[in-house]
Amino acid sequence: MNNKGMFTSRQARKITFRSALTRISAVSIFITMMVSWMLITTASLVSLKQYTEKSLQVLAYTLSQSVEAAVVFQDGLATKEILANLGQQGQFSVATVTDVQGRKLTEWRATDSLTLDHQDKIIIRWLFPHSVIQPIYHRDKLVGYIEISGADATIKQFVYFSLIALTLCIILASVLAIFISRRLHKGLVFDLQNITAAVHDIRENRNFSRRAPAGKIVEIDTLSKDFNSLIEEIEHWQSQMLKENDSLLKRSRRDSLTGLANRAAFCSTLENLLRDKKGNAQIALLFIDCNHFKPVNDTYGHAAGDDVLVTIANRLLQCVGKASLPARLGGDEFALFICSTTQDRDLIDATIRKIKNKMSEPICLPDGITIKMTLSIGVAIADKQSTLKSLMEEADKNMYLEKQNHHNQ
Asked: What is the pTM of this model?
């Protein structure tokens, strides 16, 4: 009887494969969801902390712009009114404005900042361990400082709501996953393998043209479609980023006023030419400085000076073209290089004459005034031992010698 009872008991404890698989799936899903909940919560809180700190810095900068005028005039009442108007939105709890000597100009505190409970203090201490101090500038001159401390009212509500929503989503996803796993184990594995293969190919080979195949299971098919839509967006985003990066690179190598190459682009190109110089190839560097440019600024204004620089840049382009990479090094200094396959000094002299002849033409300013400008040009011809630094120093030296001769005439 005992053996028969034990056998019957063992039979009673047996379960079907489907039930066992469901139980295993349920346990796995529960553990996975709990771990996911903890990881997502941790990552979200860390991200939230970083976001709030950054937001507080941005807010401090915004406030410094808002109170700039009031601080300049030492108007504490107006400053406090501005802080109060912004502070009532709950973005910060305390704001203090001081002048450059550290004297307090005004201070604003939220009404509830003095009645925080222990929990709120812990949250604020964690989210905002330090207050943010932002200098206040007026026309690039330091006129004071603003120090703000964060407020947790809005953030606390967001955290509570997010945790509740995340928990509900995890619970709902667990129930749904158990329900689906009872019916779709075979198709699920196959379809997930297809998606995994697509993700792996995209990640390893950057093959953004790859698409996940449609799945037999509705949810997996939806995932495949959403994944493919996301990849299309990423592909489009990558294309746009490449275009923007190319545009930014071009702008970073151009002088904003004249449109010529800037010093960095010019030096980089010239250095590459010197490094790759072969045989009898000749590289000549021309340093160009505008004579008596300062009186133009002093007499007609900086706008007229800018027009002169733009005109010089355009005339340099007309004389030598883009191949010589005419560049504005800064101020009224320009440079270009001349490359030839033979040691030909005549080409250099002809180019200099062409530039000076072109500059002999009057420059018409916007107000109708015409002026004539002359250039001092220093030449340095590279040899096998020339470096970028030595070549530029030689050209600069020769330019100033010509400039000195021009002043002595």
From this structure: 0.44
The answer to whether 149 and 93 have CB atoms below 8 angstroms apart is yes
DSSP-derived pairing of the beta strands 282-290 and 141-150: unpaired
Catalytic positions are 332
Tokens linked to 328: 């504005």
pLDDT in tens, 357-407: 999 899 888 888 889 899 999 999 988 888 899 999 999 999 999 888 876
| pLDDT tens sequence across 228-277 | 888 888 888 878 888 887 777 777 788 889 889 999 889 998 988 888 87
**Same domain membership, residue 170 and residue 139:** no
Could you tell me if 58 and 100 lie in one domain? yes
Tokens of 323: 């191949």
Give the distance from CA 45 to its chain's centroid.
Answer: 24
How far apart are the C-alpha atoms of 121 and 124, rounded to whole Å?
Answer: 5
In contact, 213 and 194? CB cutoff 8 Å: yes
For the segment 134-148, what is each residue's pLDDT rounded down to a tens digit? 898 888 888 888 888
Specify the length of the chain in residues.
409
Contact at 8 Å (CB) between 371 and 312?
A: no
Count of domains for the chain: 3
